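Internal QA ticket QA-208
Title: Verify multi-chain structure generation after dependency bump
Assignee: T.L.

Test input:
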Amino acid sequence: MNALLVTLLAPVAGALALAMLRPLRWAGWLNTAVSAATFAASVVLAWTVAEAGEVAGLSFRVDAFNVYLVVLTAFVGLTTSIFSRPYMRHVCDTGLTSERGMRIYHAMYQAFMFTMLLALTTDNLGVLWVAVEGATLATVLLVSLYRTPEAVEAAWKYFVLCGVGIALALFGTVLTYFAAQQVVGDPAEGLTWSVLFQQARALEPSVMGLAFVFLLVGYGTKVGLVPMHQWLPDAHSEGPTPMSAVLSGLLLNVALYAVVRLKMLVDGSLAATDAPHLAGDLLMGFGLLSFLVAGLFLHRQRDIKRMFSYSSIEHMGLMTFAFGLGGPLATFGALLHMLVHSLTKSAIFVTVGHATHLAGTQTIDKIRGLIRTQPAVGWALLFGVAAIAGFPPFGVFTSEFLLLTATMQSQPWLTMALLSGLAIAFAGLFRHLHPMVYGPAPEGQRPVSANMLPVVIHLGLVLWLGLSIPAFLAGWLDRATQLITGAHLL
Amino acid sequence: MSLIALPLLQQFVLVLAALVLFSSFVLLSQARLVSAIHAFAWQGGLVAAVTTVVAVAGDSTHLYFSALLTFALKAVLIPWMLHRLIRRLELERHVELLRWYAMVNMVAVALVIFSYWLVLPMVHEELAFTRNIVAISLAVVLIGLWMMVVRQQAVAQVLGFMSMENGLFLAAVSATDGMPLVVELGVAFDVLVAMVLFGVFFFQIRESIDSLDVDRLNRLTETVEETDAETGAGSRPMMVKSAVAEGE
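Actual output:
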């Protein structure tokens, strides 16, 4: 319990301190220190959960499913803060943002971490909603940090689209609460997930079905599901790069986590009706659509960050599809995919940040010859993209292989769609990647001081997960699978 | 079953909720920004009135508190903030005539019918009251959304957004006797922060496109980007960076 409180309170304290701290030199270090403290506390929390099975109390509840996301969130938060310290100082030195902007950046970074961790650990669906909306509010000023017309436009789009989406999710939450009131005696517990989950079968199916549609559209906007994905490429491409890394690596995961938790409730409620797989079917439909559309859009991108944000949509679509498919194998694969996608995608965004500083532009056509100018950045980008495209030694291959196997078992005719989608996405990524990495370097392009430590750690972990998943992690994911589907895989 | 068979207080709640829906239509068709803000304030006041009636009916203290909170936030504070903002942005006399006036209103009517159609599966006898109230609040939410689609002006879009929140609150209060207090406070806090941020954005948008007509925020579509690159419009954010880098 103490570890949980430290995990949650460290970012709050950090946000307040960073909002007041004036000397810029210290702000970056403090940001890293707070993130490190959060990560340490989350590891202790994971240890406690591994021993006790779950930690609950004060309307928080941490079990096998969310604890691995908590650790992942804190970890990516830490490595991104290590990257962001020199990166944002460079940005500030070039005059793109003011000192006041830097203070907002650091404070909001920690505020964002807090909302993510709160959304993951809370047991209350209302608080979950408040936290996810809070994440929008914390990041929207960061998207417009550079104050260019494009950045302001992206931020406005992000704000309005996510605001509307999340409002629909609140309507779904209200409907859920309404259904709960007919079943749960104490109104104060009507939004408590664990109580609802125990009594899921008694929840009125007609209300829960309607509620889930709203919840899926609402939280799905944040996941970046097509056709509600319009905000995502803009926000990712115009915001500062560390922000793109945490948005892609963490925010999308947390939104998907919310969808899966709610699906568990709806599945229970609809089990006795004539459409028991309604929630899963909806997830599969949205997931597959996002997966295919984003893969096609990869081909026509001209901005490197936009391209990788479409790749995020594609992978989120794949995970949504897998959770919709259900069953232990698909769920295990989706959980693993959440992990490796976060690690790989944030590593890619960190590398892309260095590459754009190197080339002085985000336009793909103008980024050339990375390996010649700075081999570390070039190779990191190459390996990162190879990993995200699902090449064998990396962990993404493992999870995608599991997902394909699961699809072949239960919906064989959909395997073709998945395989061709993967091929389209692969082609889309590599046609842009190849000239960027290998082409001749433009004159006057000089190496920048790059901190490749986060990239090496992330890609190393992904490689490790691809070669052999350590037993404790497999057991962990298996327990989460058991929680979601009710059956063990291993 | 007929609505006359319902308890009197529930009928009263339904009448007030219908008035909230009516105020949504009023809000949708206002041409002047100032009168739109007034219509929004009235809607907030009506939602607060619904909350008070529900509180009296259920005799629950925490609903009195949320009625007070709604009134303070939706009928006083947010309209006041918007007033101040449009005064500072010199938009008091801003008039924006709704294009296809009749069409827009017909679609709004269709949205009301759609909301009633969506709640049809809730057939249980004891759900009769709730079914109506859920349909009405859903209609308010959807009309708010529709308003955000048809209005090009940023302040009017925010009004649409806030009226969506009103619809959500109406659903929470009358269908479920209010959410748990901590959730209600969290939502109110989020709405307030959102309003402050919207204020910040009005100035950022005006600074960047010299107006608040968000239809002109169109640089970031997939196609425009290509023409941008061809003509070398030079306004991509990283261009600034490259110019600075060359100067070094």
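Spot checks passed. The CA atoms of residues 1 and 128 of chain B lie 8 Å apart.
Status: verified.
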